Amino acid sequence: xxxxxxxxxxxxxxxxxxxxxxxxxxxxxxxxxxxxxxxxxxxxxxxxxxxxxxxxxxxxxxxxxxxxxxxxxxxxxxxxxxxxxxxxxxxxxxxxxxxxxxxxxxxxxxxxxxxxxxxxxxxxxxxxxxxxxxxxxxxxxxxxxxxxxxxxxxxxxxxxxxxxxxxxxxxxxxxxxxxxxxxxxxxxxxxxxxxxxxxxxxxxxxxxxxxxxxxxxxxxxxxxxxxxxxxxxxxxxxxxxxxxxxxxxxxxxxxxxxxxxxxxxxxxxxxxxxxxxxxxxxxxxxxxxxxxxxxxxxxxxxxxxxxxxxxxxxxxxxxxxxxxxxxxxxxxxxxxxxxxxxxxxxxxxxxxxxxxxxxxxxxxxxxxxxxxxxxxxxxxxxxxxxxxxxxxxxxxxxxxxxxxxxxxxxxxxxxxx
Amino acid sequence: xxxxxxxxxxxxxxxxxxxxxxxxxxxxxxxxxxxxxxxxxxxxxxxxxxxxxxxxxxxxxxxxxxxxxxxxxxxxxxxxxxxxxxxxxxxxxxxxxxxxxxxxxxxxxxxxxxxxxxxxxxxxxxxxxxxxxxxxxxxxxxxxxxxxxxxxxxxxxxxxxxxxxxxxxxxxxxxxxxxxxxxxxxxxxxxxxxxxxxxxxxxxxxxxxxxxxxxxxxxxxxxxxxxxxxxxxxxxxxxxxxxxxxxxxxxxxxxxxxxxxxxxxxxxxxxxxxxxxxxxxxxxxxxxxxxxxxxxxxxxxxxxxxxxxxxxxxxxxxxxxxxxxxxxxxxxxxxxxxxxxxxxxxxxxxxxxxxxxxxxxxxxxxxxxxxxxxxxxxxxxxxxxxxxxxx
Lengths: 417, 391
Description:
The structure holds two protein chains of two kinds. By secondary structure, chain A is of the alpha/beta class.
């Protein structure tokens, strides 16, 4: 069984910080379907539309009937471990630094044989479940885990290398004034975070949530205003080298379409916080986080943005706010590409209308702060890139996949019949 | 299939050449191939212009293929082939060349394989070996086929009760053979104790289960028997040859190769049985694969190879001479030349020209090839039976 991960020793500043190395990232285009599924934590394989044969490794034509119509589908992840090995040395630097590394061959009940990583708690020749996870290169890889959960299984070194588990890690939550800040901080405390920094803008102003935040173990409230470059830089100078997970929950939201507002005042604020805020944080915290992705048990692991689901498709009632989030989404894709060489994960949590004053005119369902917090932690534990929080966000992504143009119409019709 | 394949009557294999291997080389595959080709032509007292057929196997020729080599080496063949089949390429090249010579598409074909090994070139080769390897094994720490063969070995041991000592017997016997081969990369004797206590690589595989990647080249010529006799060249004949690709695709893990499908036809074509074979050259990138071949080629029943190697002496002077030049495990694996090593040695053996590795009265040799770990198993298999006058 997995040994619980002990807290890391205090860092010796005289020792060299280990440079990040990555597992092999080159893939065929067909294989990127596995990565796309892993970004959401789904176990999907190609299925032939003509004869229903499951394919693995990913192909361009069916190995049974030569049809080129292969679609990605969620399939049963159960199988049996046929054979295994423990790799003691590798020509690849990433694995060479991490040996011994367990690997095996699994016969999936649904058909194909899959070479995969093997969790330490899997018994030889046993039944397994396969997880599709993003490795540090950002590509989907398959890991065999026991059928039943085992104690501390998330501490397995091979699994932890693929996830961003908060345990023993130090977290920065950027906006202590956001209504979701206490719930997020509390969730990190429960997940075993070593330190929870919470940013607070304009510290001279009362923060009604401050006492609640400070009552949570490991929380320290620090001054941070994402609209102020020097404030962001100052905090990064102080804690940038020990921020392992950054959760950007800073948000400026006001209702209103372009014509209803009549001026660009609120839009300036929205862009200042939701777009430039993210950029300032990335420029100040990104480089030091990227440099520390291989820094032991509490290496830096992930950057989390909490975005509106309206980043996917504009909702005219909040048209200007939606646009600022679309800009943030686009920027996050740039950051994801820029983080890739370091292995720092970028996770976007898409949230539907939240239960707060600014969404008061909208009907339920609305997202509670605890639900946002759960999605953040789940996304980190599963190493996801895209998390859809709440019914509205889940509904929107399903419609988006079915047809973005149709969704655009649906957004203006209050839900088509 | 109701049609009977025609025999390879009238075909002669001559001028076997092994260019001594080197662990690392600053030279290119072109250089190694040129050396083997020249040595083979020199042995037959032929000029390059007299060559009208050319077959090449190599992993490290990029961006060239056999086509680029014709201009590079100043050849103008009327028959050209490129065999990208790794460990199976020797017999595959031979079969095609033999048919070309039989029907008169070419008079003299040179079959050459060679690869170089630069510092770090092996790693680069592995990362882009095949699309399935790139997508589905290399990302899992499979820096090369070690871990693939570890899985097969793990399953083989469980299934048939083979032990590491059994694999060790093959490696130790081959090292003893290699000590007679001045071209072998490995120069020191190996004991079973050293084999057992070697550094683990990918359990249950340890250091001496793995071949040493190196640079080298192998070559031989294919011509008619008449031509060989006219030129006074000692020659081997081809009694039979088979190849098979992607066999037994439904086996969840590879415990047998494509030989099982074609082996009866091979013996039928060669009009002999396993007991007529004087020496066997298996493709030995890992000892488990040699065991698989000993079974699938009919020397013992499935799962019995461990007992077979316990009961037989696999050295040059033993009752079952096997991989007489040391095989890849001790002579080294020079890329695609690994698929020629056993074949070239077998030509030397049945023509009585093997020198220090010569097996007494070696008149009938079997050679088999195995290649291309495309994803989770070796996809290509091949085998041939050669005859000659022996020593």
